[in-house]
Each structure stands twice: as structure tokens, then as C-alpha cells.
Amino acid sequence: MDAKARNCLLQHREALEKDIKTSYIMDCMINDGVLTVSEEEKVKNEPTQQQRAALLIKMILKKDNYSYISFYNALIHEGYKDLAGLLHGGIPVISSSNGGKDSVGGITSYVRTVLCEGGVPQRPVVFVTRKKLVNSIQQNLFKLNGEPGWVIIYGMAGCGKSVLAAETVRDHSFLDGCFPGGVHWVSVGKQDKSGLLMKLQNLCARLDQDESFSQRLPLNIEEAKDRLRILMLRKHPRSLLILDDVWDPWVLKAFDNQCQILITTRDKSVTDSVMGPKYVVSVESGLGKEKGLEILSLFVNMKKADLPEQAHSIIKECKGSPLVVSLIGALLRDFPNRWDYYLRQLQNKQFKRIRKSSFYDYEALDEAMSISVEMLREDIKDYYTDLSILQKDVKVPTKVLCILWDMETEEVEDILQEFVNKSLLFCDRNGKSFCYYLHDLQVDFLIEKNRNQLQDLHKKLVTQFQRHHQPHTLSPDQEDCMYWYNFLAYHMASANMHKELCALMFSLDWIKAKTELVGPAHLIHEFVEYRHILDEKVFKAETGEKLLEIKAHEDEVLCCAFSADDRFIATCSVDKKVKIWNSMTGELVYIYDEHSEQVNCCHFTNNSHHLLLATASSDCFLKLWDLTQKECRNTMFGHTNSVNHCRFSPDDKLLASCSADGTLKLWDVKSANERESINVKQFFLNSEEPQEDMEVIVKCCSWSADGARIMVAAKNKIFLFDIHASGLLAEIHTGHHSTIQYCDFSPQNHLAVVALSQCCVELWNMDSCLKVADCRGHLSWVHCVMFSPDGSSFLTSSDDQTIRLWETKKVCENSAIVLKQEIDVVFQENEVMVLAVDNVRHLQLINGKTGQTDYLTEAQVSCCCLSPHLEYIAFGGEDGAIEILELLNNRIFQSRIGHKKTVRHIQFTDDGKTLISSSDDSSIQVWNWQSEEYVFLQAHQETVKDFRLLKNSRLLSWSFDGTVKVWSIITGRIEKDFVCHQDTVLSCDISPDATKFSSTSADKTAKIWSFELLSPLHELRGHKGCVRCSAFSVDSTLLATGDDNGEIRIWNVSNGELLHLCAPISVEEGAATHGGWVTDLCFSPDSKMLVSAGGYLKWWSVDTGESSQTFYTNGTNLKKIHVSPDFKTYVTVDNLGILYILQMLE
């Protein structure tokens, strides 16, 4: 640390120690990378606030200049501006010396790496320095002092703003001192909301390449803004975000997230919409005369003093535009004797302008570009015309132009290099390949010049693509793949190729491939952009012709319904009105205007003999209307919040209603009296949470065909109630990622269809409560779903502006094969081998590194396992049979004496010669399958829950009977019999030192036992739910336990003391803190980390009890987590049958 900074800190030490609170200041310094977590712990351990402050300052005094600056910035950030003012005079000056030993053109390898990773453009081929402007920009960035704020580079088109922004950060000491977190460049341009979302998604993906924050892209601008804020704060602190070519103020709001931002713009007022300090650097309207001459001299390879007289006049006529000077310079390089000719062309102003504006000086650019194009060789002029179809800010791979021109790569690159040499095109090298792009104004120039040819030029490109590619055969490893996925639809629409565009946009192969590569946002944008073309396909096809269109209401229509005889259509709206229409003519029949708030739902009775209409409103009321009367027949009171949905029972005797008050109510239609009220909200409550603090909106309901059951949807759960007994028959949890928008019972069978917010539709068997199929294809929220009267098909409607018709039978048949959750995993050197059973009875052996899958055999498998050396697999069946398969030659060995009931667990001994199995028949079988010897362990009174092998041929088992037993697997005798719990023993774990074991139970307790004593060493109380799992740390000093409320507790094994209660998030809306039960736990080898499975996976710091990371699976209810010995690989299967193999990144 500089002596000046050190003295300043010592001088004001007493005032600082007296006033500062260290906690948040240390957070800032840790984010800056100048303070370690262990140092933070030392400070926290000091008993008083003043002693903590004293130790922190003592640490800073031993550190460098960056620590002083970080401490100063932290004081400002946390509101200690007076104290920061005391230190301001001691702020050290960051050295401007070269921080890297190797450099090219004055740029170190460190700078090249940072700028390359951040997407900063390279220097132009001919480059002149503008040190005064670069220094001004750097000084303004330094004024931000590490605080959030804006520096704006402002000037006219073509004045070199982007080059200046890039040059500002091409400085080692500046980068290292001010922005050690890196630089992130975004080319913004003129955007609509969809385009902006894509820019934000790409930036988030770049900042989170290891996907440690999220595996999916943000779905809207607000989510993207929040994701960006977190990434910049946590993963990239002290970094600079550069936004190039910003046009609109609203765009900046998406980046207004408390970070340091440098922008280039033609309109300095764009920052009026954002908060924080702002510093403007105005770039003069053009280059000065001397700089212009310097550029010309570099192009023609002459000294400035040797330039001819005409050079001064050319600079004058170019009006200072760097782009125009570069274009003329490139021409003069090829034709050094044409100074007079190009000067005359500029003076005569004979070229057509692209656009005339007093704000932008386009005249010189138009003229220079026209000269440049005219001077091209005749045989390549047409190729430059072909570039008129390129979009602004789009870099085109060489391969695309190879397809367009039907040429070899080398031929194409030779032509394009001619354009680059004349500054008519720009080249960007990405690895071994080249990409080419035009300046915005060059695009404008070409479009205007070749406007009458544009349609044919687009058609030429599409036709050439069709000759070389089929859309579904594009592979991500092809150089031009991403270009076609992003712009093929644009070229088809511009070519007026409507038939081809419709075929492409409604191709499931195209939709699937594109969404996997670039996400749904771009696809949705294209559907909206080209809807005037696609509508012809959706609505005017032979089976979907539009029959009637009615301007029904003054505001949004929320629901509509056909009468049972199809004569009438009812509509209801935000305008509080209900209207009845003649379905054949569209004539208005009735208007009902008695609700005082918006009407959310309308539904006719199922019998057409006496039509009634029910309506549900946000005014908390339901109303019944008789179509023969002008006024409401009945008003039904009882709900205390908005009524969202209503449905008549199949016999029309009952009306069901769903409300935001958390209830489902059943009404007698004849009397309009409330018959039953079911509190759905209670199924989401935790015992600790007051009912009034949580909102549960009951979304919708649907009756079974016989009217005996009713299905209700709320949040992410489906409930099935018995109407006669008013009892809950079933509860289905669809997953935590989305909410249920709508549900419908099949009129013919036990199937139900559910619409979800995560763009998916699911089919469920309501008898077995198993999911039958996933129906994917919609690109946004699915809001409504309805079976046909015969149940053979169903309709879905979505925010993606499409309605889809699905065939029920085909959807069920084509549903993907999924895995059951009973898997076994072997970690061997660098391999991960997974043995699993799928839902069509196949045993699968999966290589976790390569994904290669071997389908081994078919069987009614209930459990399976791998031998330690991967030579054999064993599996138990639902019929009690046990078999072993030798992998080398597929020989099968079958146990002669199986179990009487389903086999639940199976495991080889370490030598692979003996197989142990447990069953619902309460027995354990020890089978030496090579010698055909059997030993049976029979003493448990109820089903054996599981077992673990001990040393010296012993085995530990636990059971639903509340006991834990230790057996000799050689003699079959019980060596120890522990009566552990009054209720079921749910899990046991054995300490690594083999002296103790734990037991957990449904009685909400856990116990620690010594193998030598029949009474517990410690009884661990405090859990409020069933304690479902436990795990010892590797050093045998800690025990972790997890319960059904999502709580994890960490205990001291020696004295039974509770060390930490792990509750990762506050309970929101009744959701358990771990997304459900905690089902499995595992410590790291150093006992500092703990991983848990439940509704999702979580990693914890054992020292603090705080969550360090969460991985959300697509489904929920993870049963087990398999962890590699080095704690770096994790394997699990969710309740959707999806296998996850996760690798911890270094």
C-alpha cells in the first residue's frame, strides 16, 4: 500500500473504529476479491463492534492499494460518506505501467484475453489514436469510483464512437485497476422488445456459462433484468458493461441494474430514463484535419508531409467522417493516381443520398460509398449487390455466402476480401472461420440502391439454401447452422415465399430444433412478426375456416361458452357484462349487466331442455340466468374473494365454483343454496404458518363423467374429491416450475388433461395418479384445455397465439420412455455407470459420461444393482424372483428360492460372490449365487425398510416394526437386537469409524446408538415432521438429519447438541423449505459441505448451516442422491423419470 494511503488510514483509524459496522462492508470487499471468507470469520469472532472494526483496519493496512480503494468504495456504498471523505485524500493512483510481459501492438495478453471473452471488437485495419478522447472517457469511468453509474459517448453516425469505446478498455493498467472483473460488450442497435429479450438472454448466457445460477434462459425482460443484476453483482463484480449503439431510452431501463455502464449513442437524451450519476463525452462531429490526413497517409503508405495538395481538399469534402475518409483512403490505395478524380466526384455531389437529414451528415458517406462501389471490378459488382439482403448488426459466416454463390470457400473469401480492402465490408475472425458484416449505413445504402431487386435477391438465397440443405438436417456443428435458424424465416418472408414460410414455421422438427438451440423467444417473435402470413395457414385451412367474427365487448373477453344445443354463445368480459349471441347469425340476443366487477367465467347447463347459464365474477358472487327471463334468477353468496370458475355437474343438479378465497363450493342448482364448502387452502398450509397469511387461488374444476368425483386445480397441485363423502381421494403434485392454468376430465374414461404455465400440457390417469403423457409444442403459457365430447381428442390454447388439436390415443402411445427412480450407480475411475429400469420394463445400463445406453433385458423389475467391478447386474421382481445377468456373455443365473412378495432392495457383497435382498415378506435372503448356498434372516415382524453391510460378514437391517437388527450373514443369527422407535424406522446410517449408527423414525425423532449398547447414546428431538434420512460426516463427528417439513439439522455426535438448523428460504405460500421431504443426505470428504435431496438438490456449508447452491430439477420428489467419493459427481432421478448426472465445476 502507498505510504500516503497508509498514513491516511492510520490518521483516521480511531474515527473509523468507533463508527463503522463491519458486516456489510466486508461483503463488499469479499465481492471485490480483496478480503477472504476466513478473514471475515476472524473479524466476526471479535466480541465487540469496535474490536471487529479495529481488526478489519489492521488487516487492510497489511494489504495493497486495491484493498484501500475497495474499503473506500464500501464506505460510500454503505452510507458512510463522511468517513469516506476522510480517506479521499489518500486514494492511491493506479500505476499505468504495463502489467503483462508479452504484448502485441502495445496490448498485453491479459487485455487480449479479457476483451476477446467480453466480445469487444478488434481494432480497424487502419487505426489512428485519439488519445485525448480516450483519456476523457477513462477519467469519467474512474469518476464512478466503483459505484453504479453511466458514461455516455455521444456523437453523430460514423464519428468513431464504437472504436473509441473499444480503445478505452484496451489498456492493461486501466482494466486491472478499475475493472478486474472484465468487460462485457453488447451491440444493441434499434430493437423491439423481443429483440431486446434475445440480447439480454445472450448476455446472461455469456455471463453464466457454467449455468451455476440457472439452466434455463430468462423468459421475459423483467426476469432477464433481475438475472443480469445478480450475475453482475455476484459472478462479475467490478466489471464494465458496454452498450454499443443505443437508440431508445426504454432499452436502457433493462440494463439499469446497479452496475457500471459505458454506452455509445447518437442521442445523449437516451439516459434521461435511468438513475445514477452520468458523465457525457462528446465526440466532435468529425476528425480534425491532421487526423484525417494521418488516416489517408496510412492507407497510401506515405508520410503526411508528402501527401499531395488534393489530400487536404478531400479531407475537407469528407467533412471529418472517419468512415468516409477510410472509404476514400481504401480507393486511393488501389489507384494512387486518382486523387483529382475522387476529389472531383466528391465536389460534384452527383450521387443520390440515402436520406436527407440535418442531424446526420450522410451526404459524404453516400458519395464515397457510391464511388467505392463503382470502382469495383465488373465481375464482382453483382456479388456486392447480393449483400443487400443482409441485416444490420448480423455477422454472416462464409459458408452462407458459399451456398448463395455456389462457390468454394476460398473463392468466396477472395471476393469478400476485395470488399474488405475497400472498406465496403467488415471481417471478424472467430477461431478458424470468418464472419462478415456491413455497417448500418452501408446496409441502408444498398437497400435504397437495389430496392426493386430485393425480393428476387431474398428468393435467390432461399432457393440456394433449399438446394443444399433440409431444415431438419441442420446440425449445430455446421458453421452456418445458427444463421439459418435465426434468419431463414426472415428471408422467406422478404422473398414473398408464403407457402414455404408456413411449411417451415409449422414444422415440428424445425420448432423443436430451434427452441433447443436459441430458446423460444426468437420463435415467438417470428410468429408475431409474420402472423399476417401464418394466419392464412391457421385459420383458413379447410378444417379451420373462420365462420363468424363478433365484436362482442368494449374490453377483454374472459370466457365464452356454447349452449348444449349449439344455438347460443355466451360471452363475459372485463366490462362487467354478460352477453348471449345467436351462434348462426352473430345477432345479440340478451345483455346481462348485474355484476359489479369483471365476469371471469360463464357456463351453460348440460341439458338443452331448460337452459340455465351460470356466471362467476370478481365481485365474489355467482349468478344463475334463465334465458327466458331478462333478469338474474338467483345470486349465490358465500365466497369472500373473486370467483374464478364454475361448472355444472353432468346431471345439472349441482354447480361447483372456485375462488381466490381458497375454497371450492358446491351449490344446489334448484334452490341456489350452498350445499358443501371444501377448504382447498388447508392442503397447502404448514403447521407453523397462520392461515390468513397465505393466498391460495383455486383456479378451476372439472367433473368426472358420472358426477361422483370432482377435480380441482390450485397452484401446482390437482385434488380429486369424492362428492358424496366430501373426502380427498387423491392429490397430485405437478412440479414446482409452473402453475396449473386449467384442467379437464375426459368424458369417457379416467384421464384428465392439465394445462401448465411452463408451455406444457400433461395427461394424468386419475385412478393411478400417474402421468400418462407430456404434450409439448406450445411456445408460451397454455391457458385453456378441453376434451372433445367423445374424449378422442382435446384442444389447447396458448399465449403463443395458437390453438392446437391433439389426438388422445396417439399422445398416450407416443409418450416418451421414462426411468423409474430405483437406480444403482457405480463410480469407477473416470466413469459413471447407471443401472436403471424404465416404464416399459427394460433394464438400461447408461454410461454417465457419454450417454451411451445398452438395453439389457425385459422383466417386471422392482429393484436392481451393479456388482462392484461392473461384471454382473442383479435385479429383483414384483413376483419375488431374483436374477443375476453376466454382462460379458448375457448368461442369467436365477435364485431357486425367491421371496414370497416384491423384492425392495438388492446388493452385492464387495467380492461380488454373494447377493443380499430384502422383501415385503419381512425376510432378508443371503445368496451365494456361485455355490447356490442360501442363508435366510427372518426375525422382523414387518416389512424390512432397508439394510447395510457391515465389516466381518455382518449386516444391519431396519424395519417398519421399529427395530434395528445386526446379523451374521454366515450363520443367519441375530447378534444385536435394538428396539429403536415406537414407530417405523425410516433410515439408518453407519458412522465411518464403524462404532455407531443412527436411526430416524416417523415418530419425529432421531437417535445415535453405539453397537455395544442397547440404549441410545443420544435422542435428537426438535423435528416437526417424520425424520426421513440421516448421514454421518466422514470424520464421524457430525450427524445430519432431514424431515418431511424440509428441515435439515446438523448435530454434534459426541454430545447430541444441535449445531445448525438449515432452512434455506422463508416459507412462502405454504411451500416446504426444501420443496417437500428431505429424502437423502451426504457429507463431503472434508465434512465441510453437505448435499441434500428432496424437492430439488441443495448444497450447504456445514460451518454456517447456510445454503450455497440449489439445483432445480424438472420434476420433484427425488428419492436418493448418489455421490462420487470425491464429492464432484451427483446422480439422481426425479418423479418425471428424468436422469440427472451433475458435475461440480472447479
From TrEMBL:
Residues 1-90 form the CARD domain. GO terms for molecular function: ADP binding; cysteine-type endopeptidase activator activity involved in apoptotic process; identical protein binding. GO terms for cellular component: apoptosome; nucleus. WD repeats lie at residues 550-591, 592-635, 636-677, 775-807, 896-937, 937-977, 978-1012, 1020-1061. SMART domains: WD40. Keywords: Apoptosis, Calcium, Repeat, WD repeat. It comes from the Eukaryota. It holds the Pfam family WHD_APAF1. One of its GO terms (biological process) is regulation of apoptotic DNA fragmentation. The keyword Repeat applies. PANTHER family: APOPTOTIC PROTEASE-ACTIVATING FACTOR 1. This is Apoptotic peptidase activating factor 1. It comes from Panthera leo (Lion).
